[in-house]
Amino acid sequence: MKNLRRTFLSVIFALTLVLTLSACTTKEASTSASHRVTITFWHGMTGVHKTALNKLISKFNHSQTKYKVVGSSQGDFTSLQQKITAAAKSKTLPTISQATYTEVPGFVQGGFVTSFDSYIKKSDLSDLYPAFVQSSKYQGKYYSMPFSKSVRVLVYNKDLLKKYGLSVPKTWTDIEKDGIKLKSKGITAIAFDQTFMSELDDLAKQGGTPLVSNKLKAGINTTQTLAATHIIWDMLQNKTATTAGTDGYGSVQFFAGKTLFYSGSSAGISIMTASTPKGLHWGTAPLPSYKGKRATSLAGNDIVMFKSASNAQRKGAAAFVKFLMSKKQTINWAEQTGYVPLTKSAQTDPEYKRYLAKSPTAKAAAQSLSFGYLDPAFLGYDQYLVDLEKATSEITANHVTPEKAMGQLQKQTEKILKTK
């Protein structure tokens, strides 16, 4: 009986100890979870891109116990920008937000962003493409970190190429020649989006005189830039090129079989894949060269951090950003969205190679990164962009000559740059 009683008491003691330890562990976990530093993150992602971002946020939150990122979609990027401006005035800014790097000068002037310099090491940026690192720096400080980046690529109709015995163009001259051949067939060579701003930017860069140089000098009405502008102007006048107009995107005419090529953002490839008409076969290629040079504009959004964030939140924001910029996560992001991976090592990663083998339309974007570039950021960039869009629209809709439109844009841009 004594042995039975001792055994019973031992069991009771053991169970009590287990329950006590379990309660303590649960309490500690609960306490740890409740003491997580919350990082509020505004973004402009919708649809499949929002879904992919939410997965990344969840993955980060489960990867550690110090921080909790709470993502909040603010609608499209125009709405996001407006809400940032309003929140800066009412002092209700989040910890971090998506934003274009060209918005940084205005944010710095407004005094409501802080740099990542104290929280990011140079080694954290060593694997990123140089263009991304360069554009993140303003006035000697890293006020933004790259995230959702895309490039312009050329989309081509495989069926039409085969039917008319044509090849994927290597130069802009090739596209001009294809347009002349196909004009009598009722097919336009290339469709742009509503304007051809990005393509003009690329041609000017390839021609040797950027629209705005890194030294903030306007080269808009130079002989080289005007010659580059005439590449598109001449095709528009000859009806061998077209813009989207009210369609919004040139992919609409491309999918209707009206154009042989379409120049668009790699971020739209996943959407194009989902909406491809049955029986239409297409591929992608890097944008063609001009004057023997290649250059493709990089676009997309960075992440900025606001001064109102506490030191703990800033550390958490930096940890989240480093997570997003890691090779594994940037590959995952690229695979899910069509944005490009930020790291150079991604190109040789077995997982990414397998993805490209299964998704060949993503190859052109990956191949373009080595010659990708970004415009310099400066105060008034948004107004410059508005003026550039107006100039290209005048050329398209009102048949204003490049000499007149670009001459006017040169004056407007010089005025903006003087007040930088």
Automatic annotation (TrEMBL):
Signal peptide: 1-23
Superkingdom of source: Bacteria
Annotated GO CC locations: ATP-binding cassette (ABC) transporter complex, substrate-binding subunit-containing
Single annotated GO MF: maltose binding
Keyword Transport: yes
GO-annotated biological processes: maltodextrin transmembrane transport; maltose transport; transmembrane transport
Keywords, comma-separated and alphabetical: Signal, Transport
A Pfam family annotated for this UniProt entry: SBP_bac_8
Record family assignment: Belongs to the bacterial solute-binding protein 1 family.
PANTHER family tied to this protein: MALTOSE-BINDING PERIPLASMIC PROTEIN, MALTOSE_MALTODEXTRIN-BINDING PERIPLASMIC PROTEIN
This protein's name: ABC transporter substrate-binding protein
Organism: Pediococcus parvulus
